[in-house]
Amino acid sequence: KTMHSTNTTSVGASVPENFELTPVKKERRADTRLLAQHLGNQHETVMRLVNDYRADFEQFGILRFQVGEIQGRGQPEKYALLNEDQAYLLLTYSRNSAKVRALKVKMVKAFAEVRRAAEVRQMEYLPAYHQLHDAIKVAANGSPNERFIHMNANKALNQLAGVESGQRAGAGSLQQSILAVGSALAAQALQNATDGHGLHKRIKSALEPLTGILALPEVHHEN
Questions:
Q1: pLDDT averaged per 10 residues in sequence order, the chain, 223 residues
Q2: What number of other Cβ atoms are within 10 A of residue 83's Cβ?
């Protein structure tokens, strides 16, 4: 189990407009501490529900428990990361108050966005990603610097989309689209390259128009 520093959930704490899912490898899960915050409950109450009906929750997958530290108190706090079915099950076991209904709407939107992002990743980003790196391989033409060209291209695309290294799989649909478009532009810029020189400069130049568009105040990256 991992240790994370976090604030304890208290009744009356400000509730965010959206529900943020937690990345767990290649999926997204709902943190019981955030569920408690949105429900206006103490986290202990939510965890009691999970533990009392643990067998029910486990019918929809393995329950992932973690241990975090309550900030300011130094005390360990056990919490769970629920998959989509488990999260909805928790809400069905809660009284259908205005807060519960509001959270249901937020959860539907959050998990729907995960599915949209996965679809964009599969249909747009991955083909463009392979197209770019195939183009780099051809343009590098056996250059000993080919590995660094691949690395620098990935770094430039991550910076463009606002994605941390190694986090592309969990990026939102907008970020997946940016990665796809950026990869396609970069691949196109390498089509007429005759040797392995200046490839990174070509990629950088190809991304500049998109960088300018994304820098506009009305354009926002997803978290």
A1: 38 69 86 93 93 96 85 76 95 89 93 93 95 93 89 94 88 92 94 78 91 70 46
A2: 20
